[in-house]
Structures are given as structure tokens and as C-alpha cells.
Amino acid sequence: MFKLNRVSKSVRMTALAAVASTAIAVPVLSATTASAASHPTDAQWTAVAQCESSGNWQNHDSGGNGHYGGLQFSPSSWAAAGGLKYAPRADQATKAEQIAVANTLYGMQGGGAWQCASAGGL
């Protein structure tokens, strides 16, 4: 026959506390990870655009650098991030559409895609 060992109350309470703390920690870690993966806010993109193009969302390559729109997309970046579903060039898209494409590009390349990323805290 098997002899059952009695587990002390303090051991059971310690085990219960460990399980409970794990149950609490997992959602907290998941929430932290989810917020770290979020996109910049519209206000952050507006600050980047203010630096990149003086806030001109319909900027038509006035700097002669081959970049368009408020966030100064190159034609290849605009296309790669799905911008062509909105307009042939960024300057022909709305601010909201440019921000949507910027969020996609941000997910692909991070803030390094913009010279003025630090202006928006990216």
C-alpha cells in the first residue's frame, strides 16, 4: 500500500500563492507586449509631418528630394506599405490615409524610415 504524506498548510499556501501570482503576471506581461507593438498616435504623426514637410500633407516634392506627402514617402516606400490602394502618390492621399500607410511602414521598418522620427517621439 501507498503511504500518503501530509503536506503542511504552509507548503500548500506557498504553492497556491505561486500559482496565483503566475495567473496575475501572465496578463500583465501580455498587456505590456501588446502596448509595445502599438503604432504611433495621430498626434505623433502630425509632429513628424510638421518637421518633415512643415505639416503640408499635400506636399508635392517641393524639396526636390523625390518624397511626397506630409510624411515624405518615397514612391517605393508608399507602394511597399500599401499606399497604392489609396492613391498613386502620398500627396494625393488624405492625411488619414497617409497615417494608415505610415503605420504599416512603421511596422515594417520602425521609426528609422523618417528623418524626423524623433520629432514625434518615434
From TrEMBL:
Transmembrane among keywords: no
Domain (Resuscitation-promoting factor core lysozyme-like) ranges: 41-116
Keywords: Hydrolase, Signal
Domain of life of the source: Bacteria
Leader peptide range in chain numbering: 1-36
InterPro entries from the UniProt entry: Lysozyme-like_dom_sf, RPF
Gene3D superfamilies: 1.10.530.10
Family of this protein: Belongs to the transglycosylase family. Rpf subfamily.
Protein name: Transglycosylase family protein
Organism per entry: Streptantibioticus parmotrematis
